[in-house]
């Protein structure tokens, strides 16, 4: 598995790769992960992720200083390392998680050796711009260059996947491929505990990296618009380069005493936060799936999300929550109010809808589908879009 970001990194791509690798080990596969070293220490050793032991090849890495934690392997050295690792391990398949540095090198070297490549894309190059320090007039040509390189690298893969059909359609348009599979990142819903007890407070949660693409400023502005009588609290879980700016925004809007920035949290702290929340707010415009949203749904939370990228795949307006126009803090405030003022019957109906809609995203379906792709078998993309009406709608609620 070739990954440009992997645990202990905290982001959707890293979490997916970690869960996939652990699930494959649990099924009896011998998994090697090639990823940047998370510190100056580099080399090959055994790591434990999600309770499963796997071999990690940690490449010498540098910190990318425009980003608050990202490290990268040196591009001019990665091909050499990829060749060395492939010759030593002799894998049956390489699963690339990125068309950038490590994924790119492993794909090229695997093709040269006749090793099957499966590629999963989690990335929109446009989302990298804020960390490149490129002047505005260069950004558009830079994005075109990255997509052209993506087209070249992904053409070497026997199979290409991305988490949702909407993301797959976007990737096909961007790369010229017509066979991109939509395969959910998957989630083990049994690890989350649905909560149906009557709420005792109005608590809004956001979980994710504190970066510009997440549009957390829109959420804070919407929160400031809420009726003071709701006595709502906003909990922002995660860390990132925009934290200080957003703390200042909350202060300027007069809501700092009701907005909590937790910073990085452990898995147990995250589950506790889901359990005490009334609703998850996801204003991001760049989600190719949103594992956070899936985790919240597995905890039986209603979701209020931007009507952008893959979020409409998970959030059905009026069923398990509401969608709002991206960037519209006024509309977001109205949709949050709809959830916070819902009676217990309506709130329970949204909770049940979230649980019903997360079932097709079971991680075991994801693992089985990737196993088939690794073997070169034809697959039918798992159906994850729940289209039938809920029991509550059929009963006229």
Instruction: Name the overall outline.
Output: globular
Indicate the percent of residues in helices. 25-40%
Please tally the helical runs, counting DSSP H or I stretches of 4 or more residues: 14
Number of domains: 2
CATH architecture descriptor text of the largest domain:
3-Layer(aba) Sandwich
Protein name: D-inositol 3-phosphate glycosyltransferase
Keywords: Glycosyltransferase, Transferase
Task: Furnish the topology, listing elements before pairings.
Layout: H1 12-26, E1 32-36, E2 43-49, E3 52-59, E4 61-63, E5 71-73, H2 75-89, E6 93-96, H3 101-112, E7 116-120, H4 136-154, E8 159-162, H5 165-175, E9 181-182, E10 203-207, H6 216-225, E11 233-237, H7 243-252, E12 259-263, H8 267-276, E13 279-282, H9 291-298, E14 303-306, H10 311-314, E15 321-324, H11 329-340, H12 344-358, H13 363-374, H14 391-394
Parallel strand pairs: 1-3, 6-7, 7-8, 8-9, 10-11, 10-13, 11-12, 13-14, 14-15
Antiparallel strand pairs: 2-3, 4-5
Helix pairs in contact: 2-3, 6-11, 9-12
Domain Glycosyl transferase family: 198-352
Domain Glycosyltransferase subfamily 4-like N-terminal: 10-191
Protein name: D-inositol 3-phosphate glycosyltransferase
């Amino acid at each position: 598995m070739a990954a440009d970001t992997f645990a202990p990194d905290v982001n959707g791509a890293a979490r997916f790769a970690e869960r996939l690798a652990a699930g494959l080990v649990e099924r009896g596969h011998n998994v090697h992960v090639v990823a940047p070293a998370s510190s100056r220490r580099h080399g090959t050793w055994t790591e434990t992720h999600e309770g499963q032991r796997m071999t990690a090849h940690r490449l010498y890495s540098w910190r990318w200083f425009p980003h608050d934690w990202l490290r990268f392997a040196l591009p001019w050295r990665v091909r050499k390392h990829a060749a060395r690792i492939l010759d030593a391990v002799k894998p049956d398949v390489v699963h690339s998680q990125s068309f950038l540095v490590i994924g790119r090198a492993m794909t090229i070297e695997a093709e040269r050796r006749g090793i099957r490549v499966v590629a999963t894309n989690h990335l929109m190059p446009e989302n990298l711009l804020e960390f490149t320090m490129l002047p505005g007039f260069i950004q558009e040509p830079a994005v075109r260059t990255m997509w052209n390189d993506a087209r070249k690298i992904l053409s070497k893969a026997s199979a290409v996947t991305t988490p949702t059909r909407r993301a797959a359609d976007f990737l096909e348009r961007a790369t010229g491929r017509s066979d991109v599979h939509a395969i959910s990142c998957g989630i083990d819903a049994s690890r989350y505990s649905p909560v149906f007890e009557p709420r005792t407070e109005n608590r809004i949660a956001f979980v994710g990296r504190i970066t510009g693409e997440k549009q957390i400023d829109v959420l804070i502005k919407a929160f400031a618009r809420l009726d003071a009588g709701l006595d709502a609290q906003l909990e922002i879980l995660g860390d990132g380069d925009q934290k200080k700016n957003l703390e200042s925004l909350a202060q300027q809007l007069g809501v700092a005493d009701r907005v909590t920035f937790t910073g990085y949290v452990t898995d147990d702290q995250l589950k506790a936060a889901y359990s005490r929340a009334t609703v998850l707010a996801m204003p991001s415009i760049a989600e190719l799936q949103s594992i956070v949203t899936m985790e919240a749904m597995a905890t039986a939370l209603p979701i209020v999300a931007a009507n952008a990228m893959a979020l409409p795949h998970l959030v059905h307006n009026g069923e398990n929550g509401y969608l709002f126009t991206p960037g519209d803090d006024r509309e977001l405030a109205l949709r949050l109010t709809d959830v916070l003022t819902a009676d217990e019957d309506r709130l329970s109906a949204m909770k049940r809808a979230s649980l019903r809609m997360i079932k097709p995203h079971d991680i075991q379906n994801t693992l089985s589908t990737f196993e088939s792709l690794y073997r070169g078998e034809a697959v039918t993309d798992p159906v994850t879009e729940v289209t039938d009406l809920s029991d509550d709608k059929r009963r006229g609620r």
